[in-house]
Amino acid sequence: MAKITYIEHSGAEHVLDVKTGLTVMEGAVKNNVPGIDADCGGACACATCHVYVDAAWLDKTGDKSAMEESMLDFAENVEPNSRLSCQIKVSDALDGLVVRLPESQH
Amino acid sequence: MSQLDAHVVILGAGHAGGTLAALLRQYGHTGAITLIGDEPIAPYQRPPLSKAWLKGEADADSLALKPTEFYPANRIDFRPNVTALSLDRAAKTVSLSDGSSLAYDIAVIATGARAIQLPLPGADLEGVQVLRTAADAEKLKAALGPGKHLAVVGGGYIGLEAAASARALGAEAVVLEREPRILARVAVETLSSFFQAYHEARGVTFQCSVNVTGFEGKDGKVTGVTLSDGRVVPCDIALVGVGARPNDALAKDAGLPCERGIVVDLEARTADPSIFAIGDVTYRPLPTYDRSFFLESVFNALDQAKQAACAITGRAAPPVEAPWNWSDQYDLKLQIGGMPFDADTTLVRGDIAAAKFAIFHLKGQQIQAVEAVNAPPEFMMGRQLIANRKPVDLVKLADPSISMKEVAA
Fold this sequence. Notes:
The complex is a heterodimer. Chain A is α+β, with helices and mostly antiparallel strands. Chain A has helices at residues 24-29, 66-72; strands spanning 2-7, 13-18, 50-53, 82-84, 98-100. The radius of gyration of chain A is 12 Å and the shape is globular. Chain B has 11 helices and 27 strands. Chain B has helices spanning 15-26, 60-63, 70-73, 134-143, 157-168, 189-200, 249-253, 298-313, 376-388, 394-397, 404-408, and strands at 8-11, 33-36, 76-79, 84-88, 93-96, 101-103, 106-109, 113-115, 128-129, 149-153, 172-176, 205-207, 212-218, 221-227, 232-234, 237-240, 244-246, 258-259, 261-263, 275-277, 282-286, 291-293, 324-329, 332-338, 345-351, 356-363, 366-373. The radius of gyration of chain B is 22 Å and the shape is globular. The A-B interface holds A 22, 26, 29-32, 34, 37, 39-47, 67, 70-71, 73-75, 106 and B 22, 25-26, 45, 47-48, 51-52, 62, 64-67, 70, 74, 298-299, 302, 318-319, 321, 324, 326, 328, 333, 335, 376-377, 380-381, 384, 404.
């Protein structure tokens, strides 16, 4: 279990306990957090679960796969700390993680 | 006009219906929401049933759109194992298979499509099945394993995904196709050949231009698929994947206009202002292509769930996007953007032998559709170019050393 804070573009915060083994995307979608669409359900096929990972957590969330990198390259408003949240697995090490959501996923 | 306190009755608890219920709450709908589903479980994702889930890489929890406690917590009255039998548009009621009747302010038909069953001798044998629901997928998965033989009737994407998953589980797989090539209705020949060769290299066999005449069995269980040339293809399980039909009888009986599916507008509204329809069951406008068509995809389920949720809660309509779809087979990710309507040529970018390429369907200099294999930039940028209707330089597009960003610039 990890406590994850999702901050919508509007500033609204959602602090959720997300089970280990789920992805950061699933934690948001299963709790109906607005702003993460995840159209493909986590197949790394659509780039609609884009998040910005808080700088302090970048190391702990791991490296991007070539596929993720390539998909992100064409998403809107990409920053160096952009990730596809379906590719970040939740573990105890991510307890306290903060991610911010972009204005739009489409 | 917003109707935030309306009682919305959603008929069908698939990807579209389940998404709409959740979006209505997200968008501030305060009225009652009733979600009627004919399956025993809450809304779930169907795509993984032939992909990650079938291979054992995803569990039931991860398939569910929302956890079961989500529905009561959000005042969504989810009723499993119930089917809508008829709509009374004048009285604004719907009668249900459990004998009850429900009054609605707004009804949303989200009854989806059903897999076509072949009316052939032996089709009722145990082990002859389609793949549409989680229950179908459970049966298929239980029957696959080392030494088992899967016969796939129909070389479409579902059949190919099932064959790939069967191989991952150690089973043998043969694909039987009526047309001279697999994917004949949905892909160009280049892609058909590519996929067939890729599968063959991983042990799947193909028989094209064959007519299936029935199924043989022993003790009520399938043992083989019979062909019109007299041959019998032995199998332990036969998966029929030959397309789907919309479940639009409810709408037809209620006098709502239907084509191949229920006719809706860009708000997902039917000819009756109090009735919407979303997902596989619809026949919808595609502004990008100046026509209406049916789309059986997650994109469509989500897009129309958004359209309906926006219309019901008084939000601005979502932007028009190009349809898309995907398929996972082995280490291949196929991403399809757009529809190849009115295309006059195709152009291949990339290296087919290296399994990293995209096929663009062009109408003059305009991209109508793209089929990208392990080629996300081509898919992502292609889809944007399809939606923008922006002409492209075909010489640049054909040259993979020029980035897709430069092609689109």
